Amino acid sequence: MVFNRPGIASMSLGRPWIHDLPGKLIQAAAHGFEGIELFFDDLDCYAQRVFGGDHHEAARTVRRLCERLSLTIICLQPFSFYEGLIDRAESNRLVSEKLAKWFTIARALGTDLIQVPSNFLGPDPKTGAARTTGDRGVIVRDLLRLADLGAGAGFRFVYEALCWGDHVDTWEASWEVVRDVNRPNFGLCLDSFNIAGRVYADPAAPSGRTPNAAADLAASLARLRTANIDPAKIFYVQLVDGERLSAPLDETHPFHVAGQPVRMSWSRNSRLFPFEESRGGYLPILDVARTFFDDLGFRGWVSLELFNRSLADPDPFTPADHARRGIESYHKMARVLRWESHDEKSAVSVPAPTSPVQHRL
């Protein structure tokens, strides 16, 4: 029987160039996480600092450390800004150069899974011209190309709709793409933040909600329950909440970034772990989680993908603090949903590193 297992994104324990990757992995394992979504930015930072930019050697070292810590590398992510490009030469370059390199890195890491977020490249900042197409046929063909290349090399891909994506910004749209790609090595990531963040939350509104937030989310979840999605096509899920802002995120807000979608600015600064209402969490994450686990019957990796301004805190205990908060959130969700797999591992007391780890493990 497959049970749920706790994972966390490496970026969710501290910012690269502020908190070192080995230290974050140590804290994840010490607090009871079993898997890690490895962000390329973390690996790149480690490679630049310790291995002279050699990503392959950095990946091999990270793999050895994760093996010692009994951490599974769930995936390498994010393979961004790929599908639906109007510039077909750039699309071909990403396949011939970037994808080939990622296959090499993922193989060195010991993972067979690469995450692809929906494209949010946006318009050209100089001309305003569109850089992506909403033509689903083009999007599907691009991702089918990835899937077939990956199948030949022994890799899988997991596709996730971002709530600020150019054209794919709902779970429905991402599922239609996964369904049409129709390859066994191409699956779906369902993210509570991106689902609720699109139809329930509006950080630019004074209320923080869309006009019909509760009804729209309920309708979306009802469609999810009846979409006949094979749980095996859901490669993993992400659980995370969002902070209710004290003021609308407009051009006067400190989180505002010119040219950046409002929901993206909110996401980068204000995600929270589930059940952190005391920190401002307000999305109906439990309703989304019940749909994932009780209705769809998902069992597998449950990853906590947090982005928040708190991750930039240079305090050396920042990774430990976020690991603690994350695992407490996971265990509370396990208790509330009565997961049979609930097994609170004893956390080992490991002090947070006070300086970047600069040695080969």
TrEMBL record:
Xylose isomerase-like TIM barrel domain: which residues?
Answer: 27-328
Q: Name the Pfam families for this protein.
A: AP_endonuc_2 (PF01261)
Q: InterPro entries, per this entry?
A: IolE/XylAMocC-like, Xyl_isomerase-like_sf, Xyl_isomerase-like_TIM-brl
PANTHER family tied to this protein: HYDROXYPYRUVATE ISOMERASE (PTHR12110), XYLOSE ISOMERASE-LIKE TIM BARREL DOMAIN-CONTAINING PROTEIN (PTHR12110:SF21)
Q: What is this protein called?
A: Xylose isomerase-like TIM barrel domain-containing protein
Which species does the entry assign this protein to? Penicillium alfredii
